[in-house]
Amino acid sequence: MIKDIKHLNHKSAAIILNYCDLGIAYRCNLRCKMCYFWKDSPLNESNVVSIQEWMQILEEVSMLRRSGDFMINFSGAGEPFLREGFLDLIRYGRKLKLKMQVTSNGYAIDGKMALEIADSGLKFLCLSLDSLNSKTHDYLRGMEGSHTKVLNAIENMALFSKKIKIGINTVISRLNLKEIPDLVEWVQNNEKISYMNFQAVAQPFSYTGHQDERWFEAQEHRFLWPDDEELINKVMDKLIKFKGKECKVVDSTAQFNAFRRYFLSPLTFIKQNRCNLAKADILNIDPPGNISICQFVGIIGNVKTGQRLGEILSSKNVDQHKDEIIKCSRNCHLVVSCYFQDEEN
User: Fold this and answer.
1) Angstrom distance (rounded) from CA 92 to CA 53
2) Is 307 left (phi over 0), alpha (psi -120 to 50) or beta?
3) Cβ(232)–Cβ(178) under 8 Å?
4) How far, in Å, CA of 221 to CA of 34, rounded?
5) In b/e form, how buried is each residue of 37-73, taking b as 16+ CB within 10 angstroms?
6) CA 170 to CA 176: how far, in whole Å?
């Protein structure tokens, strides 16, 4: 298939990629409190990008990547390891010499799955863990036993592969805020875990709900929002103190200070330079194939239309998309968490 895309090169595309988030997953085995995709997803195997189409996308992405730290993250509206054929896609990506990470809840990673993951050649596996307290984690993830499952996943992966780097992703919310420092200590002392990153809780993802800057004030969401000023400051100060040469937490002190400002004053824009996504070399492709830099301002195109990715990224739609990002005045969670950019230095 690669011979079909030789026309793609760095000069022909408006975006040269440094990071890609590919939405391979469209169904989930958990019922997370901070995500509603499991409630209202219209997706099924007939209306999402097929594994064969994803392989074509990997080929095209490999032609548009920057050298060095280019990374593909497989995520989506659910759990990647529920997708049949997903590990074939990982194997194909390894043939293309792509650096890939999978974000997973760990629930499906038993011994058999861990062995298959190890054999696929995956290099980075980031597992969702919100607390050392099983009751807290299970409640936030909406499934009893999910805490045990993710801890077992860590053990299984460590048993079958010494090459895969295991990471932890934690969503900071009102329910686990006071437990965060203990979780970081545990990660620091666990030789099986290589890295850790945080996200600040945001409006639950949904296909049907509209974006609302005051979402945290709604009765159904209020339980997620940290509102104890003293505790917020105490925890953020502790996280900053953890930073050092041997710290596994990848978030910067600037980001923890951004979390602090976000929690204490969520309606005040916490960054001086507004959104940096218009200048970022990133790309998102969701499960139905919609392409965006920021999904909140619209889509650039769709990979299922038959048009090549390079052609889509060379179109005027990209410039229009970036213009909309620049104009955007929303104080969204992407600025705080996923695509944070330091401004303190």
Assistant:
1) 12
2) beta
3) no
4) 9
5) bbeebebeeeebbebeebbbbbbbbbbbbeeeebbbb
6) 10
Q: Which residues contact 327 (CB under 8 A, 6 or more apart)?
A: none
Q: Round to whole Å and give the CA distance between 326 and 324.
A: 5
CB 169, CB 338: distance < 8 Å? no
Query: What is the amino acid identity at position 336?
Result: V
**Cα–Cα distance for residue pair 182/202, rounded to 1 Å:** 22
Helix, strand or coil, per DSSP, at residue 165: strand
d(CA 103, CA 120): 15
Residue of 285, 287, 286, 258 whose CA lies nearest to 273: 258
7: its two tokens:
């026309």
Q: Is the separation of the CB atoms in 30 and 77 below 8 Å?
A: no
Q: Please tell me whether residue 283 adopts helix, strand or coil conformation.
A: strand
Alpha helices in 96-228 (DSSP H): 111-120, 134-141, 146-160, 180-189
Mean pLDDT by 10 residues, the chain (345 residues): 36 70 94 90 91 96 83 93 97 96 98 97 97 98 98 97 95 98 97 96 83 90 96 97 89 92 84 71 93 90 91 91 85 71 59
155: which DSSP letter?
A: H
The CA distance from 99 to 313, in Å, is: 21
Tokens of 300: 């650039």
Q: What residues contact residue 269 under an 8 Å CB cut-off, 6+ apart?
A: 329, 331
Tokens encoding 47: 């209306």
Chain-centre distance for alpha carbon 184: 19
Residues in the chain: 345
